[in-house]
């Protein structure tokens, strides 16, 4: 893997603009085709405030246009992935006399847009749950394609315990990931579960000892980045869309996807690499 290039509280990335605002609540690191976005407010368990939301949205916009990135890893700094929304900021907003429904709705829609942007990224996304992931933290993890959790991680949707409600597509994503019965249990009880149980019910794809999380994520990201980018984009998009399609529609999309691959330079490279007994070097073309 190539040397790490770090963009910490910066606005440039490999000589090009990464974000349209400076970063204070996030840090971004590139290892070749793998980009790691780290939530960086460890003193408040990486809770999201308005600033964090704006920075995250800016990074997602930049990544969407980044043709060199093939894998995006989302994780947290310190002992938490994210404790969700910063309730101190929310409490202050609710106490304001001008906290109209329109203003509150605008803030909620900003949250919803994070999931839309995360789901629409062309790269494969991996949530590396290094600690507590609740509320918005758990919701954003659901929007990632893959999830790996450290054994110390706890995950849950405690909104009902705080007289709140789920956002960020939880009511659509969670039942599709763990099934309706388990989703209902998690949402209605609001209880947190440990990484081992999350793995058992399919909420995360793997749970591992804390010390093994970083190398496990690095190995997974390297495996993903070695695959043909075009194939990954097609597969990711169809996997997301398949719930709203019937079998005929899915098979038609498969045909279109296969035709696109057959026309690609990467298919030729993959075939030659196999015949020559070497590792393919895909360009995404």
UniProtKB/TrEMBL annotation:
The lineage of its organism: Bacteria, Bacillati, Actinomycetota, Actinomycetes, Streptosporangiales. This is 2-(1,2-epoxy-1,2-dihydrophenyl)acetyl-CoA isomerase. GO terms for molecular function: isomerase activity. It comes from the Bacteria. Keywords: Isomerase. It comes from Nonomuraea pusilla. Transmembrane segments: none annotated. One of its GO terms (biological process) is fatty acid beta-oxidation. Pfam families: ECH_1 (PF00378). The keyword Transcription regulation does not apply. PANTHER family: ENOYL-COA HYDRATASE, MITOCHONDRIAL, ENOYL-COA HYDRATASE-RELATED.
């Amino acid at each position: 893997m190539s040397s790490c290039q770090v963009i910490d509280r910066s606005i440039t990335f490999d000589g090009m603009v990464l974000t349209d605002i400076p970063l204070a609540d996030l840090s971004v690191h590139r290892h070749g085709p793998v980009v790691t976005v780290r939530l960086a407010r460890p003193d408040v368990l990486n809770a999201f405030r308005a600033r964090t939301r704006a920075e995250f949205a800016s990074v997602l916009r930049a990544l969407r246009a980044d043709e060199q990135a093939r894998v995006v890893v989302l994780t947290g700094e310190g002992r938490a992935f994210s404790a969700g929304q910063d309730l101190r900021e929310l409490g202050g907003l609710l106490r304001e006399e001008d906290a109209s429904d329109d203003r509150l709705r605008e803030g909620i829609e900003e949250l919803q847009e994070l999931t839309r942007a995360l789901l629409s990224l062309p790269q494969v996304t991996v949530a590396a749950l290094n600690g507590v992931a609740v509320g918005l933290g758990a919701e954003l993890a659901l929007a990632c394609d893959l999830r790996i959790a450290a054994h110390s991680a706890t995950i849950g949707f405690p909104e009902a315990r705080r007289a709140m409600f789920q956002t960020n597509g939880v009511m659509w994503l969670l039942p599709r990931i763990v099934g309706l019965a388990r989703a209902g249990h998690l949402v209605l009880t609001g209880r947190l579960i440990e990484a081992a149980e999350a793995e058992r019910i399919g909420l995360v794809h793997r749970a591992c000892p804390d010390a093994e999380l970083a190398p496990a994520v690095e190995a997974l990201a390297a495996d993903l980045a070695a695959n043909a980018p075009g194939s990954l984009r097609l597969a990711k998009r169809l996997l997301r869309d398949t719930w709203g399609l019937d079998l005929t529609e899915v098979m038609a999309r498969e045909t279109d996807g296969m035709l696109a691959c057959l026309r690609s330079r990467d298919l030729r490279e993959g075939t030659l690499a196999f015949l020559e007994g070497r590792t393919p070097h895909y360009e995404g073309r």
